[in-house]
Amino acid sequence: MQLTWFTWLLSLLPVAVMLILMLGFKWGGMRAGAAAWLVTAVIAVAFFGASWQLIAWSQIKAILLALDVLTIVTFALLLYNMANETGAIKRIGQEVPRLTADRGLQVLMVGWLLVSFFQGMGGFGVPMAVCAPILVGMGYTPVKSMVIAAMGHNWSVTYGTMAAALMALVGVTGVAPETLAPYVGVLLGLTLTPTGMIIGVLSTGWKGMLHSLPAIIGVGGAIAIVHHLMGIWGLWTVATMAAVLVGGAVLILISRLPRYRAPAQAANLVPQADNSNDLAAVKAEVKPRNFWVLVSPYLILMLLGFSAILITPLRHVLGSIRFTLQFPEIRTSLGWVTEAGPGKVFVLLSHPAAIGAYTCGITYLIYRAAGYLKRRDMPMIFKRTLHGLVDTSLAVIAMVGVATLMEHSGMTYLLSKGLSENLSRFLYPFIVPFTGLLGAVLTGSNNNSNVLFGVMHMETARIMGLSIPLILAAQSAGGSLGSVCAPAKVIVGCTTVGLSGQEGRVLQKLLPLMMIPTAIVGLAAVIWVYLIYQGVLP
Amino acid sequence: MKPAPARFSFRLRLLVLALELILPFGIYFALLAGMEALALVFFILMVGGIVLEVILS
């Protein structure tokens, strides 16, 4: 397929249709994703030589990729609903802000650190699903709460979810993670303080942000350093969580400074949009419940997550059962070839969904033993989980379907080739994080964005004589930033703050703000390339 | 005033979701077995589900 302005614009059309329908027409992710899928299929057949078999093979691969995400979301939502039923989420919303009396620091604690911690554990929209309602409980509007929660964990995705995105990049490019890590750490580290400042402005205004600035710089710096060091030391899978824990400790220390010792401002617990746990909350008020028992699901999740990674014999046992489907070579009539090979490989027993399932089981036993949950509560919890999942699942399937179909028909390649061929050596590194962001917004994950664009960026960097790990790191950093804007994830968060079907309102505010850290990554990459070119850096 | 009933009910969405999860596997095994006509039927049903999502949401 030849690259012309016409074919490039055609390749852009599926992405444009999805974004216009969601942002301009306020369509939900399910409907916009389905419409974009149909548009992509028509373009693929009419202009890119795709057959119905190609579309079918592509959709089968998409289902495997979507299942990878949806199984995790299923157990994350189930865990969330179990915790919510006992009043745990409301209690976290009360307790975490009380770690500091300062309003600005409270928001940083929830909307920057707690949300990133959950990304370290699971991701897939769950950090927003958990933290946005807490911010609503602190008195912020649902839209603002979603924007803060999304912005807050933009830096944590590449190493979050057990470094799945980094490993995806390593898998498709063959570049060693040890080579990528130093670049990833620096580029994402540079976004931390600006992100904290944006959260400060959103939550407490410019004056409030300036009041919180020393804390933002201190916490942002601490997180960036630990995140970078953990990457260099090869501890990618726990880098996000470790960095957040250190950042939390620094924030608590800073909150003891006279500057932040304001009179205690208890969280303004306005009723949450999702008021399904009202009964549980009332019960909780009648009989105080143990905080540590309430939050035990997340402690267990952490324990199991660490164990599955760090205990080598356990990791080998859990990693022993794998499942995948084999696919034949797929070719368009215009000659674009997708090589034969396996689809998404599921490591069944150590998959994050499996860890989530174990956690749900243990949580049920603990809550039952403590008398916080009754057997008759479970049908309602399952029903609520199912209701939350259906629209999300349809949206994710459609969006991943668009991405795989674009990839299999050669649209993704043309889209990126067009960008890279028309940009200079010093402009290209600036654009790379934006393509990472675009890929993540489209596919719903940093992981998929890296899979889509990783090889293309590697080849382009090689042709242009640029540092391959730097360009790949910029791609992944952009993917991390874009991942939190992905409609597929925003939808999950929106379901918990009463914004179902109104994801467009959140995206309208979130996407322009996300351009700031993305531009910072791009500028840093340009400067880095320039310094390498000048011989200042190796 | 009672809200108007959703055009795309929860049960219908659940059915579409089930079809979109199951049909691709049907297509996979039908294509592997060389049963292209059956695979095409599954494929049309799958696309029909996606069209339903757009027009009934």
What's the arrangement of secondary structure elements?
The complex is a heterodimer of chains A (538) and B (57).
Chain A: H1 5-24, H2 29-47, H3 52-85, H4 88-95, H5 103-121, H6 126-137, H7 142-152, H8 160-173, H9 177-232, H10 236-255, H11 278-286, H12 291-294, H13 296-310, H14 312-318, E1 322-323, E2 326-327, E3 330-331, E4 337-338, E5 341-342, E6 346-347, H15 352-370, H16 377-409, H17 411-421, H18 428-443, H19 446-464, H20 468-483, H21 487-496, H22 503-533
Antiparallel strand pairs in A: 1-6, 2-5, 3-4
Helix pairs in contact in A: 1-2, 1-17, 2-16, 3-15, 3-16, 4-6, 5-6, 5-7, 5-8, 5-9, 5-10, 6-7, 6-21, 7-9, 7-22, 8-10, 8-19, 9-10, 9-20, 9-22, 13-14, 13-15, 16-21, 17-19, 18-19, 18-20, 18-22, 19-20, 20-22, 21-22
Chain B: H1 10-32, H2 36-56
Helix pairs in contact in B: 1-2
Q: Which descriptors would you attach to this protein?
A:
heterodimer; A: 538 residues; mainly alpha; two-stranded antiparallel sheet; 6 strands; globular; B: 57 residues
What would your notes on this structure say?
The complex is a heterodimer of chains A (538) and B (57). Chain A is mainly alpha-helical. Helix content of chain A is 75%, strand content 2%. In chain A, the strands form three sheets. Chain A has a two-stranded antiparallel sheet. In chain A, a hairpin with a 5-residue loop joins strand 3 and strand 4 (337-338). The relative contact order of chain A is 0.17. Chain B has 57 residues and is mainly alpha-helical. Chain B has one domain. Chain B is 77% helix and 0% strand. Chain B is elongated and about 35 Å long. Chain B starts with 9 loop residues before the first helix and ends with a helix. Chains A and B meet through helix 2, helix 3 and helix 16 of A and helix 1 and helix 2 of B.
